[in-house]
Design brief:
Helix content is 75%, strand content 0%. It is found in: Cell membrane.
Length: 402
């Protein structure tokens, strides 16, 4: 694999992460419009919303089996266009069964997409010999900000879902297809090119060894879903902000997530993954604590800002750790770990809502705080430390590219 090939593969995979960020944000930020277009009742809406991550988990499980026969890049090449077309289907339909089918396809394709993207990311990081995984997730965050901004513009101008989605899909679908020409797998643990059959190389996957990372992934997404689903309500109902100000914390969270991920790989190269994850966990827990005791809206926003900087590094480093833990079986490890992304998303919002109703929303914020702190118990699962340049440590397996 040439340095130029690795650079092209890295750029094309970054594009894929960014496109996925746009598509996901366009879906989740227009849920009220989707509900209105299809006449989905408040009682039925949670069923639709829960079905997407459940089907995504199924898609991730299926991907683990598929990549034993074909390359992850092949899965990604077909899954990304399917996600975009399913998004367009959500906007184009009129009957309830239309949106049910479209969301079902979206969920299954997203599971395959998330799993295959992270498989390629882990493989490329191994080929680079240094941390680059957080940068891919920064591209996702950037895409999410762009998608949320496009959704805001569509709502502001009272565009239909189809009018909002069609131009975006018309631009991103060809871009994703062209970019897929340069998808690249790195080198496997034994120096062979990753690809078909790599999921079974290197012995059986031990779920017992993977379990700490699965728990960390779940805790991180419980924290993330708490911010995305409850930050506006918390600021308005608990901290007494205006409705307009209540929309700010999630935007701040998204921006700080992007900024933290943009520099996260530098931190991992300098201090190692274990130290970065520990620092992120402490910062995120501190953010939840600040939110829980905040006397007013501006202090609450400080807490959500801390959460963005803290949580942003945990998920990409968890995928990277799975790749280091099972270097000959990384595809299967990533696919299985990816399921707990959706577990955390499913658990987080209902958990905080139930505790908020039964106890208090301030008290409910302490639960994700404790769960994020539990990451410290499992932090050693993020070793061994990656290569550190200039310090006499392990040298990279390829030339320093890109």
């Amino acid at each position: 694999m040439t340095d130029a090939g690795l650079r092209h593969g890295r750029a094309s995979l970054g594009l894929s992460f960014g496109v996925q960020g746009v598509a996901f944000a366009l879906l989740v930020t227009r849920i009220p419009a989707i509900q209105d277009q299809y006449g989905i009742s408040d009682g039925l809406l949670p069923v639709f919303l829960a079905a997407v991550p459940i089907l995504a988990g199924a898609g991730s499980v299926a991907t683990e089996k598929v990549v034993a026969r074909v390359r992850p890049s092949v899965v990604l090449r077909w899954a990304q266009p399917l996600v975009l077309l399913a998004l367009l289907g959500v906007g184009a339909g009129r009957e309830l069964w239309h949106v049910a089918v479209a969301l079902g396809v979206f969920g299954l394709a997203v599971g395959a997409l998330d799993a295959s993207m992270n498989m390629l990311g882990v493989s490329l990081q191994r080929a680079y010999g240094r941390s680059i995984m957080t940068g891919f997730h920064a591209a996702f965050s950037l895409g999410g900000i762009a998608g949320a901004s496009l959704a805001w513009a569509g709502a502001r101008w009272e565009l239909s879902l189809l009018a909002s989605y069609l131009p975006v899909v018309a631009v991103l679908l060809p871009a994703a297809l062209v970019g897929s020409r340069w998808y690249t797998e790195g080198k496997g643990a034994e120096g062979t090119e990753a690809g078909a059959g790599s999921g079974s190389a290197g012995g059986a996957l031990s779920f017992k060894l993977l379990l700490p990372l699965c728990l960390i992934m779940t805790f991180a997404y419980i924290g993330d879903s708490t911010v995305s689903n409850w930050s506006a309500k918390y600021l308005q109902d608990v901290l007494g902000s205006s409705e307009q100000l209540a929309t700010v914390p999630y935007n701040v969270y998204m921006v700080t997530t992007l900024l933290g991920r943009a520099v996260g790989d530098l931190g991992v190269r300098r201090f190692g993954a274990v130290a970065v994850v520990r620092g992120g966990s402490l910062l995120a827990a501190g953010g939840f604590a600040v939110v829980a005791v905040a006397p007013g809206a501006w202090v609450g926003m400080l807490g959500f800002t801390m959460l963005g900087f803290g949580l942003c590094v945990i998920v990409p480093q968890t995928f990277a750790a799975a790749g280091r833990m099972f270097p000959g079986n990384s595809d299967a490890a990533v696919a299985r770990l990816n399921i707990f992304n959706y577990v955390g998303f499913l658990v987080g919002s209902p958990l905080v809502g139930a505790l908020g109703d039964a106890w208090s929303y301030r008290g409910a914020m302490l639960v994700p705080m404790v769960l994020v702190l539990a990451t410290l118990v499992y932090a050693r699962a993020f070793g061994p430390e990656p290569a550190r340049y200039g310090g006499g440590h392990e040298r990279p397996r390829t030339a320093d590219v890109g």
